Amino acid sequence: MVSLDEAVIARLEKGGKRYEILVDPDLVDTWKRTPENVELDDLLATDEVWSDARNGERPTEEQLINTFGTTDLEPCVSKILTDGSIQLTTQQRKNLVEEKKRKIIHSISSEAIHPKTMLPHPPIRIEGALDEVRFSIDPFLSIEKQVKAAVDAIRHLIPLKFATARLAFRIPGKSYGGAQRLLRDSIVKDE
């Protein structure tokens, strides 16, 4: 069991009511990937669902049954962690921002080219441009939306052109099924 000092609040607001649990910030990510590998006792700081954890207020059994369909702890915890929001530690937030930044830079550098030279921009150039315009990265916003915003922000610093290539493949008959399964969404014409 994690100590109360190290625990963070996972919160779900539903039906005008708030439900909170105190969880280990490091085990939440592990639980989201593989819930069967994390013990509930290790994940939780207390074996309670709270309506306000800071003030020690608990919801009534009727409120728990109306929201979660049960008063058992495990389904309530599962619902709060999957549908609710979790406070992040400073280090976790910093790691999320860095990971998103790397993905945004990779996405731009792999899809955008310099219009005159027709060569891709190196990731360092894109990172420098993002730093220069002080582009702020939201750890919870999708990468696609942030790539569009980042391109709009750095377009006046570095020329960008997005290019796509059309490729033709000749595949022997015995390998067709596997290749078709992999490329199903990208196939324009099949002969």
Q: Which strand order do you get reading across the main beta sheet?
A: 2-1-3
- Rg (CA only): 24 Å
Derived from helix and strand composition plus strand pairing, the structural class reads mainly alpha
SSE order, one letter for each helix or strand? EEHHHHEHEHHEH
CATH superfamily of the largest domain: Ribosome maturation protein SBDS, N-terminal domain
CATH topology of the largest domain: Hypothetical 12.0 Kda Protein In Nam8-gar1 Intergenic Region, Chain: A
State the total count of DSSP E strands: 5
The CATH architecture of the largest domain can be named as 2-Layer Sandwich
Number of domains: 2
The CATH C-level name of the largest domain is Alpha Beta
* Distance between the first and last residues' Cα: 61 Å
Specify the overall morphology.
Answer: extended
Identify low-pLDDT runs.
Answer: none
Counting H and I runs of at least 4 residues, what is the number of helices?
8
Largest sheet: 3 strands, antiparallel
